[in-house]
Amino acid sequence: MGQYKGVALGSIAVSVPVIAIKGFAWWHTGGAALFSDALESLIHPATALLTFGAVWFAARPADSNHPFGHGKAEFFAAVIEGGLIVAAAWAILQHAWLVWRGGPLLLDPAFGLALNGGATLLNGVWGLVLTRAGRRLRSPAFRADGLHLLTDVATSAGLLLGLVLALATGALWLDPLLAAATAIYVLVTGFFLIRASVDGLMDAAPSPAVVARIKTLVAEHAEGALEVHDLRTRNAGQTTFLQFHLVVPGGMTVDEAHAICDRIEAALRNEMAGLVATIHVEPESKAKHHGVVVV
To answer: How far is CA 207 from CA 82, 211, 214, in A?
Structure first.
């Protein structure tokens, strides 16, 4: 839990100066594009707090009301984060429209762009830290937070390049258009984030590569059994649940069948952290195939 807490608190610590710098850059210049960047970044402190709470709750041990643990709490956090991103996109579109109607205005843009660039660099570094932590800790909330930050970096870089072009050519009308383009990009990101999180809430299976590796490990360590069938998997936060039927010869003792199960479970645990396997042992008469272990 200490690792999770450290990463979550780090997100909060990084987000505060970033939003302050970007907010001041927009206030100083009055640009619609910089407003869009500041508002998109404003979501991050809220989502960082949300992530911290979700990770803390998800790490709680299983209890009588939640015998499979609390890992799905992280998916709820990711769904809410996606919703906040969508809301920010709508606010950016509204502001871009108002600036377009009222006429673009940029005051002291060079200073504002420099401030925004520094904040963007800080976001990029921390976004990489979060995505790597999400993969290492198998945390969907951290992965969502990291994706959000890296999306922020990509849009910020695009905005900065676009504003430099607008200033170089005198085409200041590009400012609200860049803000609108940012809003659309953010909207799409929020949609995909929500969709991925909903998949987690609906017990989506791991990636095909992970499922294929599980099948390989089971087949390699099921020596003595006749076959494996009805293999199913599902993700629940940091935990992957696996269940399958193991068919053994009719004359095999319970101890021998249990030894096969232990061997399979040990192989899975050694390679796949957070995997929980449930194996249903069946007699030879239940076999669906013959001669090979089938997964």
So the answer is: 21, 6, 11
User: Residue 221 is encoded by which pair of tokens?
Assistant: 């360590």
> What does residue 293 show for φ and ψ, rounded to 5 degrees?
-80, 125
pLDDT band (50, 70, 90) for residue 278: very high
At 110-131, the pLDDT tens digits run 787 888 888 888 888 888 888 8
Reference 152, options 277, 55, 45; nearest CA is: 45
- Residue of 222, 267, 268 lying closest to 248 (CA atoms): 222
CA angle 71, 76, 82 (to 5 degrees): 135
Residue 290: CB atoms within 10 Å: 10
**What contacts 23, CB < 8 A, 6 or more positions away?**
38, 42
157 vs 268, higher pLDDT: 268
Distance CA 23, CA 160 (A): 15
Angstrom distance (rounded) from CA 181 to CA 273 = 41
Q: Which long-range contacts (CB under 8 A, 24 or more apart) does 219-225 make?
A: 219/293, 219/295, 220/267, 221/260, 221/263, 221/264, 221/266, 221/267, 222/246, 222/260, 222/263, 222/264, 222/293, 223/260, 223/263, 224/248, 224/252, 224/256, 224/260, 225/257, 225/260, 225/293
Residues in the chain: 295
Instruction: Give pLDDT tens digits for 33-82.
Output: 777 778 777 776 776 677 777 777 777 787 888 777 777 777 777 778 78
Q: Residue 3 pLDDT more than 70?
A: no
CB within 8 A of 177, min separation 6: which ones? 96, 100
